[in-house]
Design a protein that fits this description.
- By secondary structure, the chain is of the alpha+beta class.
- It contains 3 helices and 4 strands.
- The longest helix has 23 residues.
């Protein structure tokens, strides 16, 4: 019955997905950001994806390592969250590669 809330949540997710994708595309060590029509983004790193994934997980940032899947070498999948969650993810990724 609360379609206004649902619509607002969907709009926020779409906006945040664009923010995350744009930020990833600016990073030198991200070699590809795959198109997404969902609540997550798959991206490929130049190297060390599994180590980046583990380091982020140890720091409380949850992502999914997809490097063991076919055609997904060095790939990580991140679920789009709130603006603060997305910023924490981006900060953790940048810290790993700095």
């Amino acid at each position: 019955d609360n379609t206004d809330i649902l619509d607002a949540n969907i709009q926020n997710l779409l906006e945040q997905r664009e923010v995350v994708m744009a930020a990833l595309e600016k990073l030198d060590y991200v070699t590809k950001v795959y198109p997404s029509d969902s609540n997550f983004v798959l991206f490929r790193l130049a190297e060390k994806a599994q180590a980046a994934y583990k380091t982020m997980a140890d720091g409380g940032v949850v992502t999914r390592f997809r490097g063991n899947e076919i055609h997904c070498d060095e790939c990580i999948r991140v679920t789009i969250g709130t603006p603060s969650e997305n910023q924490a993810f981006l900060a953790a990724l940048q810290k790993f590669y700095s």
